[in-house]
Amino acid sequence: MALRRSIATAVPEAAFQESPLLCRIRQVVCDCLGLSSTQLDPYTSLIHDLGVDSLDLGSLAVGIESAFEIPVEASDHVYMTRLYDIASYVQWRMLEREQGLL
Q1: Extended strands (E) in 1-102
Q2: 5: nearest Cα among 88, 74, 70
Q3: How far is the C-alpha of 2 from the C-alpha of 51, rounded, in Å?
Q4: Around Cβ 58, how many Cβ atoms within 10 Å?
Q5: Structural element, H or E, at residue 98
Q6: Is the pLDDT of residue 28 over 50?
Q7: Could you give the C-alpha distances from 29 to 2, 6, 22, 76, 78, in angstroms and in order?
Q8: Which of 36, 73, 84, 86 is buried deepest, with most CB atoms within 10 A?
């Protein structure tokens, strides 16, 4: 639970409105899940709105790992529910990498 709070508060929501990071994540999500970018906004729930299942989230995690060169733990798949959540997670992991924590 503490990890979830730290990820959610890592970066202000306004910073992702049309950031390059969010645009790149949107592209990775579309490529991994076979979606159109028009189906996604920062608040679209991949699970509830688009019917993404756990296997899809695993595929998405691999795509995120490859695109951003960060590890995505299997237990962290639960944080990949909206583009905003994924962007917060990626930013947090990239910061950890920069600080030598990964």
Answers
A1: none
A2: 88
A3: 27
A4: 15
A5: helix 83-98
A6: yes
A7: 26, 23, 10, 16, 15
A8: 86
Q: Please state the domain extents for the chain.
A: 18-98
- Look at the pTM and tell me if it is higher than 0.90: no
Rounding to the nearest 10 degrees, give the CA dihedral for residues 101, 19, 7, 62.
-70
Pick the CATH number of 18-98 from 1.10.3810.10, 1.10.10.10, 1.10.1200.10, 3.40.50.1000: 1.10.1200.10
Chain Cα centroid distance, residue 83 = 6
State the Cα–Cα distance between residues 54 and 46, nearest whole angstrom. 11
Q: Amino acid identity of 85? A: D
Which amino acid, residue 50? L
Section 55-72 average pLDDT: 95
Could you give the residue ranges of the DSSP H alpha helices within 16-82? 20-33, 54-68
Q: How far apart are CA 42 and CA 69, in angstroms?
A: 22
